[in-house]
Amino acid sequence: MGRVTERRKVIRIRDGAVSARPDTLVAEEPLEIRLNGKPLAITMRTPGDDFALAAGFLVSEGVLGAASDLLNIVYCAGATVDGSNTYNVVDVKTAPDVVLPDITLERNVYTTSSCGLCGKASLDAVRTTARWPIADTPPVRVAPELLASLPDRLRAAQRVFDRTGGLHAAALFGEDGELLDIREDVGRHNAVDKLVGRALQKGDLPLSRTVLLVSGRASFELAQKAVMAGIPVLAAVSAPSSLAVDLATETGLTLVGFLRGSSMNVYAGEERVI
Known about the structure:
single chain
């Protein structure tokens, strides 16, 4: 899809001088995710890698765990009243033996924002549905110096950010620091879903020897997605939330925040940071 950016007229004021000029903005459109024909969730995203986004979202929900769980993903033709295809609705078709979730309002609220459920219920839901318990995986060790080098490498790889200044990014690194994949999106949770979905499609789950770096803060939702994909280390350039720290502590996830320059805070799983 080629709708990552759009042009809009802007009035520019610089040192008292006023001019009109076009500006490049990041595109934001809704994506409806359907599961075997039934509406499941809607997210606001930057178009592109929509199939990976949908697959990654379903990994974080415990529905998909391997490429064999997925039959196909298609854009829904006739998604509008006039029958046109907006490329904003995808339908994920699963293999016959995949156990499907109950599609209810309560579940949809939980899957999109964790609202409506107490923190303990949210923690329990992730802990009990994770396919690859992080505490049981072979130990990964990362040096502080390696972690400190990752934000600059993430920023250098953000191609669309350079044109818009309005995108979040998520990147997967190997434990040796190799950049494995990077995705950009208006929502950092979507960027993570795109990474995880691409890994599912390639048969690379669980991501048990990787480090996930996100621009901005580390919310409960991002920690959840890391745990569900089997990622042992989550690092963020900004602060984590309290519930993200609680989830990391309970699941064995290493959580690093305020990763800036040579400074960082390790909130959980410090045994992986050499």
